[in-house]
UniProtKB/TrEMBL annotation, chains A, B:
Record has Lyase as a keyword: yes
Protein name: D-TA family PLP-dependent enzyme
Gene3D superfamilies: Alanine racemase, D-serine dehydratase-like domain
Keyword field: Lyase
SUPFAM superfamilies, sorted: PLP-binding barrel (SSF51419)
Family membership: Belongs to the DSD1 family.
Domain D-serine dehydratase-like: start-end pairs: 250-343
Length: 360, 360
């Protein structure tokens, strides 16, 4: 079965097509903004999910205080589109990056994250190029085990190092607590705060992160802002985490069934180059087919999605166009130059993914 | 430890950077061409790996007979660059695709694959637009369980259907045998060949596929051509399959160590948006770090590669630039707009990945 909208998408654009419902996008933006407002923290959405200045402007218009980027290239695209107050939540290293960061800081309010002295030693270059201080927040790891210092003592030492360095200014702390680790983050923050205050420093940014953390927004006493990203589109992981419903999933991949070589098998024209092999933290299969939820996207070739139909009573036919909610929406958007915008059953137009491919 | 070339790449382009060694590219092209020549089959390389007209021209100049594409969008880019004789090895469905396929057929020699009557019923549209017959090969599955008819009887029936349809012409059979399934493919082909000959048809294309199948090239009696793709760059999967050495791996991702938050952990600036979560058919970790082969790229965030360093005697420092052979090179290239070309220790320039993002 092909919905009327799916037939229109296939006719006008072909498949696979990445489609976003702007009614749902706007609803997601409004809901998370309201939750941040209610919690008394500023919303600084992470644009790594959508990579679109137009959508960033919608987030700012709804009340977001600036944005978060993961790469300088993303920040350059956003600043060129007039978005100010950008946090690059990443350790940036090297002369090439410092030159670009300095140029960016000359045009927009920019803060970066750092978790070690090597990174901090390079950052003054950017401040010198811009002729004004670059703000730096210290990334603190409270259980996620990616970047971030592991102890308040290290955070305090780095804060002092930043304060003693020309061209950069200590701005505060950046956290990305695990969903059940907010008490741990609180203890870390309280100790780090006491330490920097003893050194005569005061944080103005205390940032928490994550769409799956939306139920926890505001729980860190002293937090000033939150950095949710995926909520603008949502995906199978967000539904699994209990922070979104299927109706909140604003992005769907439309794909045609191109083969039914055997009774229990089918082939979609969306493979790992469209949906990615992201396992979504252990979900079954590589996406949910809304039209055939019992079907399993069992494995991939690059341009083939191999369907296991053994559990399906009603099975898709060759030529059917189906709608898929991906496991992880951010990595899907990262591969496409544009998405098709719809509202309900109507096609609205094309949205370029302007910061796509900005891997540095 | 950072090699002098890695330092230059980081200085001139920043990291992560996708780097190809043109000496290795040319050597890989020559070796596989020679193997096809020796086996007496034409080489029709699959451009899904590199997505670059410049590299396709190198393959043709070395002796390749045409190319293989997986998507019309890829074929459009290649035809615009003057590449003729294109096999699109995929079931194409829908009016939008038929209009583009017809336009393409007006400019270049094009053959497509089909494995079912629904696909075949649509193809005459393209022939009618072009004013000449579209060649069609029947995709046959002999064990891989993706697209392809499962029995010679079905293949024979489809051949007759194609022959009876206006605007399209039966051209032959397309196989992608499993590496240990060439005897199965031979039996399938012999029976299908006898069947179509009994119907007065003669195949002119009998195509086999796959870089991991290079040791088997020519083993299918009656094969006219082979479609290897990954061999131009190679990757960890090809090395694991025994068809390439590390020195044959022409593409490497250069990445900076941006954090060493704990003694046993490190963070690369290459995450799932650079290396992808492709497990490479069950390899340990998500790429081999040539400079630290005992390190494991254990898991990803989108822009973080999380290193497990427990097995390393010598551990990378923050700021080190390392070289990574990805698990699966094709999906890495699919995310980048350009690659950096080098020869040995010298940077040659930038190569656009012109057919990147052509998902339809």
């Amino acid at each position: 079965m092909t919905t009327p909208l799916a037939a229109k998408i296939a006719r006008d654009y072909g498949t696979p097509a990445v489609v976003i419902d702007m009614d749902r996008v706007e609803r997601n933006i409004a809901r998370v903004q309201a939750a941040c407002d209610a919690a008394g923290v500023r919303n600084r959405p992470h644009i790594k999910t959508h990579k679109s200045p137009e959508l960033a402007r919608l987030q700012v218009a709804a009340g977001a205080k600036g944005i978060t980027c993961q790469k300088i290239g993303e920040a350059e695209v956003m600043a060129a589109a007039g978005i100010d107050d950008i946090l690059i939540s990443y350790n940036l290293i090297g002369d090439e990056k410092m030159a670009r960061l300095g140029a960016l800081l000359g045009k927009a309010e920019v803060t970066v994250a750092a978790d070690n002295p090597v990174v901090i030693a390079g950052l003054p270059q950017a401040g010198a190029i811009a002729g004004r201080d670059l703000g730096v927040v210290i990334e603190c790891d409270t259980g996620r085990k990616r970047a971030g210092v592991e102890t308040p003592g290290e955070a305090i030492e780095l804060a002092k190092l930043i304060a003693a360095s020309p061209g950069i200014a200590f701005k505060g702390f950046m956290f990305y607590p695990t969903e059940d680790g907010w008490a741990v983050a609180q203890r870390f923050f309280d100790e780090a705060l006491a330490g920097v205050r003893a050194a005569g420093l005061e944080p103005t940014i205390v940032s928490t992160g994550g769409s799956p953390n939306m139920p926890n927004v505001g729980k860190l006493k002293g937090a000033t802002e939150h950095r949710p990203g995926t909520y603008i589109y949502n995906d199978r992981m967000q539904v699994a985490a209990g922070v979104a419903t299927w109706d909140d999933c604003a992005l769907q991949v439309y794909s045609t069934v191109v083969s039914r070589a055997a009774a229990d098998r089918g082939i979609l024209d969306a493979g790992s180059k469209t949906l990615t092999a992201d396992p979504g933290g252990g979900l079954e299969g590589f996406g949910l087919i809304l039209d055939h939820p019992e079907a399993k996207i069992a494995r991939f070739a690059e341009e083939h999605g191999m369907l296991d139909l053994t559990r399906c009573n009603e099975r898709p036919k060759v030529g059917d166009v189906v709608r898929i909610v991906p496991n992880h929406v951010c990595v899907v958007v990262n591969m496409v130059d544009e998405v098709v915008m719809v509202r309900g059953d109507e096609i609205v137009g094309i949205l370029p993914v302007a910061a796509r491919g900005k891997l540095r």
